Amino acid sequence: MTLILQRLIIISVLPIQERKIKVKVLGVSGSPIKNSNTDRALKAVLDATGCETECVKLMDYTIEPCRACLGCVKTNTCVIKDDGIALTEKAKAADALVIAGFTPYSTIDSRTKAFIERLYPLRHTHGFMAGKPGGAVITFAAPEENDMLPPAGQMGINAVQFYMMEEGMNFVGAVKIQGNVPCVKCVYGDECKMSGIPMLYGPDATVDSVGIKSFEEQPVAVEAARELGHKIAEALGTANKAIDSHEK
User: Fold this and answer.
1) Could you say which of 55, 169, 201, 220 is the most buried, measured as most Cβ atoms within 10 Å of its Cβ?
2) CB half-sphere exposure, 179, CA atoms < 13 A
3) Global pTM?
4) Extended strands (E) in 3-142
5) Angle in degrees, CA 226, 230, 236, rounded to 5
6) 118 and 111 Cβ atoms separated by less than 8 Å
7) Could you tell me which residue, 103 or 241, shows the higher pLDDT?
8) Chain centroid offset of residue 154 CA
């Protein structure tokens, strides 16, 4: 059942005065760093929707990955008694979902992946996420212009996009942010033989020459965040117009 059909059923049994639609966009960040580039970009997307929003930081919750036990098939509720159940209910109740993560070892981080996996109970029989608009916000360190490095940013986006595709959601876009390799902050970035700085930026690169990258100083990313927020709002508006037409 699509998002629009679910709403039509709910609205049809409400008194006319109670039929005004109020949408909510849920943003979920897998970044463990307080007020990180990932967090700030996600909040920029949410702000640009103009809708009621909620921003969840997975670092504040305890959530296991899926056990692949299929214990959720009949109940649409996970058998693991942790914060994953409440987070899944937030996603179920939201009208749109934006998932934000980063890419250690060129793939989506473990917290974000665990969150995605724990949304699995919502698919059985009902498809509770189907039809909802969604997007991705991904921070990565590997420069995209270096063809010798994995496409970490795109791989992170794929992890979110393919989840949404498999659940029948409407993936409307993504934001990519150039982030910081941990070596620029660990104190030993210029002397450690395992430093990622030379690998990412060339043999002559140093902590000082690379510097600290900020979301707000990347115009393309800032504009992409604004655009993604507008696309989500537009997708939600389309759903509301369909409901309005039905009421008339």
Assistant:
1) 169
2) 27
3) 0.88
4) 24-29, 52-57, 96-102, 133-140
5) 150
6) no
7) 103
8) 14
The residue count of the chain comes to 248
Q: In this structure, what token pair is assigned to residue 44? A: 């920029």
Provide mean pLDDT across the span 144-156: 95
Sign of the CA dihedral running 64, 159, 148, 205: negative
Radius of gyration of the chain (CA): 20
Best CA proximity match to 235, nearest among 174, 162, 173: 173
pLDDT in tens, 166-222: 999 999 999 999 999 999 999 999 999 999 999 999 999 999 999 999 999 999 999
Overall fold of domain 24-179+218-247: Rossmann fold (3.40.50)
- Give the contacts of 180 (CB within 8 A, at least 6 positions apart): 37, 141, 212, 213
Q: Which residues pair with 177 in a beta bridge?
A: 139
For the chain, which residues make up each domain, given as ranges? 24-179+218-247, 181-212
Residue 20 burial (C-beta neighbours within 10 Å; 0-12, 13-18, 19+): exposed
